[in-house]
Amino acid sequence: MNSIYPRRMTLFALLLWSSACLAQSPQPSAMVQQKLQQMQQATARNEKQLHTYQWIETATVTIDGNTKPPRQSICRYAPDGTLQKTPLGAPPQQPAARGGPFRKMMMEKKVEEAQNELAQVRTLVGMYLPPNQEKFRQALDANRLTFEKNGADGAAVVIHDYAKTRDELRLVLNASTMQIQHISVRTYFDKPKDTLTAEVDFASLADGTLYQSLTSVNSSSKKLSLTTVSSDFSKAVY
User: Fold this and answer.
1) Could you read off the pLDDT of 93-103 as tens digits, one per residue?
2) Which of 86, 119, 151, 163 has the highest CB neighbour count under 10 A?
C-alpha cells in the first residue's frame, strides 16, 4: 500500500477545520481569518521541514493468519515534491513448491488469489486515503459532516457517506495546534458485511515536524491485514 503523505493529510485537516469555521459564520470574523492564515503558514512550514528528511518504511502483510516477511524501503522526497521509495534488500522469494506439477499449480493459484485480494484492499483504501478535498466539500454542502469533542484538547471531524453509503471517515485534531492526530476509516467491499477498517496515527519529530507513524488496514472477510511503520528519520542524503 502506498504511504499516506503526511503533508497532504495535514493540509486536508487544516482546510477541513477552517472550512467548518467559515461555514458556521456567514460573515467570517477577523479572528477566523487570522486563524486560517496561521494554519496555512503552519502547514507550509511542516511540508518544508518534512521534505528535508528521509526515513525507513516497514510494510508487513498478514494473509489468513500467516505473516509474510516485512518489506523495507528508504523514503525521501524528490526535488519535484514526489515521494520516492528505494527498496532495502532483495525482494522475498516464494517457497519452492513440492509434490509435483499439480501441487506447484495449486501454490501458484493461491499466490495469484492472494495478490488479487491485496490489490482489492489497496484499491478500496485508496478511495479514502489520502482524503479528497472535493469529497469533503460535497459532504459539507450535503450536511454529512459532524463535529465532536474528543478529550480535553481535541476535536473529531466525522464525514458520513464519504465514498459509499454508511461508510465513515473520521479525523481527530488537536484543537490547540490544529494538527491531525489520527484518522480512521470504516467501509466495506461489495456488501456491507465485507468490512474494511483503516487506522492512521501521526507523531512529531524533535523539531515538531508532523509525520505518519503507523498505518494499519484490516479486512476480516478477506482475512488480510496490512501494517506500515515509519521510523529512523534522518536528514535526507541525495
Assistant:
1) 655 555 566 55
2) 163
Angle at 60 between CA 132 and CA 8, to 5 degrees: 20
- Nearest-5° Cα angle at 150, 139 to 128: 35
Alpha-carbon distance 28 to 48, whole Å? 29
- CA pair distance 73, 17, nearest whole angstrom: 33
Between these two residues, 173 and 14, which has the higher pLDDT value? 173
C-alpha–C-alpha distance, residues 31 and 35, integer Å: 6
- Segment among 7-21, 97-111, 214-228 with least mean pLDDT: 7-21
Q: Is the dihedral of CA 136, 142, 144, 149 positive or negative?
A: positive
